[in-house]
Amino acid sequence: MTPSMDLANAPLGTPLTLIRVDAATSRQRLATLGLREGASFRLLTRTIGGGRIALVGGSRIALSKDLVRQMRAQAAR
Amino acid sequence: MTESTRLRLTPTTATPSSAKACCDTSPQHTAGTGAPVVALVGAPNTGKSTLFNALTGSRVTMGNWPGTTVEVSRGVWRTTLSTPSCDSEKCASAHDGDPLAITLMDLPGAYSLDAHSPDEQLTRGLLQDGPFNERPDLCVITVDASRLAHGLYLVSQVRELATRVVVAVTMSDIAAQREVTVDTAILSRELGCPVVATDPRRRTGVVALATTVRTTLADPVPDPRPAPLTDDALVLDDDRFTWLSEAADMATVALGHDRLTLSDKVDRWVTAPVAGPVLFLAVMWAVFQLTTTVAAPLQDALDGFFSGPVSHAVTSLLALVHLQGTWVEGLLVNGLVAGVGMLLTFVPLMGLMFLLLALLEDSGYLARAAVVTDRLMRTMGLPGRAFLPLVVGFGCNVPAISATRILPDARQRLLTVLLVPFTSCSARLTVFVMLGTVFFGKNAGTAVFGMYVTSVALVVLIGLLLRRTLWRTMGTEPLIIDLPAYHVPTLRLTGAVVWQRLRGFLKTASGIIVATVCAVWLLQSIPTTGGQAFGQVPVEDSVYGVAARTISPVFAPAGFDQWQTASALIVGFVAKEAVISSWAQTYATEQPQPGQTGLLGDHIRAAFEQSSGGHPLPAVLAFMVFLLAYTPCVATLAAQRREVGLRWTILGVGIQLATAWLLAVAVFQIGRLFW
Hints:
Radius of gyration of chain A: 11 Å
CATH topology of chain A: SH3 type barrels
Helix content of chain A: 10-25%
CATH class of chain A: Mainly Beta
CATH superfamily of the largest domain in chain B: P-loop containing nucleotide triphosphate hydrolases
Number of domains of chain A: 1
Helix content of chain B: 55-70%
Number of strands of chain A: 6
Distance between the termini of chain A: 10 Å
CATH class of the largest domain in chain B: Alpha Beta
Largest sheet of chain B: 7 strands, mixed
Number of domains of chain B: 3
Strand order of the largest sheet of chain B: 1-3-4-2-5-6-8
Order of helices and strands of chain A: EEHEEEHE
Shape of chain A: globular
CATH architecture of chain A: Roll
Largest interface: A-B, 31 and 44 residues
CATH topology of the largest domain in chain B: Rossmann fold
Oligomer: heterodimer
Shape of chain B: elongated
Structural class of chain A: alpha+beta
């Protein structure tokens, strides 16, 4: 099984599968934007302050540093 | 002809429970009480407001920014039917035999009906929580073809309600660039409701949408989409996501979904740790420069026009009817003409500011700017995008208040509106420069710079104070921003946004500005001693002068209790531009030329020397701090009233006056120990 990692440590450009969101208050908001458990996505860019821009289903979603630390993913098969 | 208006709603406090009730309040902007009511809903950045504009031909806020539509707009959609073989907009007149007027409402952008934000709360209130017979007759939901699944969560929730739904697929041009195609027939089958492809920017597919809406309106209300019989939100969400994923997968061919675009390459720089802030500061500098330097000559020209030719013309006309030199001349020239003139001098400034804001919004840059400034602003509980109105405030507070509309959350808007007056506008700069030159000589620049540093410190400190008192419960949710693709703003849409906002400002601000200028004239015209005629009285003997004398002791602890100084502060409440001219008027001297201090400087120096008991420097610093922190001008108050209502505007004035007085007293009392 592929090891999981938080998004702060996930590589850019690699296809990923979201396996868990620990930030409970943001979980549903992320889900409505396509970032729900099981979703395939990629991280495109590291932004100022340690955030990331994720590409999911054609959408570009900017996420802050504290949030990416609470999201875990693994490399997509 | 079409008509529209904007219905102001404060989402947290005034969520209407009835779409029809709110449409019935102003019949001239609806299609009539018997007409069908159609609600336009959709996620932000799906072309919803642009579609509203295309359907009604009205002016409505449109922007490439999540949550731009913070008000409910409505208009009359005059529909015609198309034949199956003809969907040409030019051909619509051929079908005019069966027109139908529909009341169209543009609801705030919402990703779901879960009420995460005040905008979503508003949409939920109108679609879900109101009585069934008062809900809209049909919902048109816009979804972005380039990222179909993104907009379908809202569709899944609305389809669970007993209401008619038509899905409008937009952004086909961006989808084509990304090699994404959507089969509307398959999507319609999967969603169980009609689906129409439309391009509101090019106004295609509009007649087909009208035909589909009318056909659907004639049908009975369809059964809601069956959902699991449970209250477990996770189970319900799983069901919705499974349903929408299947629909999106079936209807979409996405060859280039994950391909990097030019927007992605630009974002790599625009949001980068070093390049991002540098670009942001450059953009802010350009906004600041353009609003102050480009608008300034236009403002001066308008000011000169009203105080020169217009005033002279009015005086000449009054001479013809033998009213020259009477109070009527004072009322017309110093009251009405001066008031209208002052209002109109704001037009170039506001127009330019709204234009720049619209360009930044529509291009997609503003969403990136929010990412860049997010961490800094979050210390005050504000999102990154709040930086923009605060920067704009250093040019002029009035457009800065209006610029708070880019904030999607009502409480964040309110907090920013209360902070903007503490940013030192360019009108205050003129007074700082004059006093700096008079009292600090070659160190004038340092004194003025100190005022700007104080201004920034005040914004941060007051922000933190309010955050920890009035807004303790305001959440600090982490940054999640849906970044729209960059695109070139369209002239027509940008022009419509600018005009709509400018019209709103003039409509609201005109009354308060003209009325206040007239009120000051009136108070300066009423004598308090016998033997003087109305309108022919020296300022110090007028009601205004007496009021200034009455108020002036309040400033004794701050070292500037001369009545002339208090008088300048009262006039400064109307407009900071008038402070120096007020001194000139009360001391009956000419205004000094820029860079010179003249006789007026001597008068002012003597006044501060006397009122401070021999400590003029701390007294003038206290005065400058007071001038910085207290209410900027009536135009700012008018803009605040428009954005947050009278109650919060009054509270804001209270905060400004209390802060200004306490700081001024502290500066003088501490300063006199050293100087």
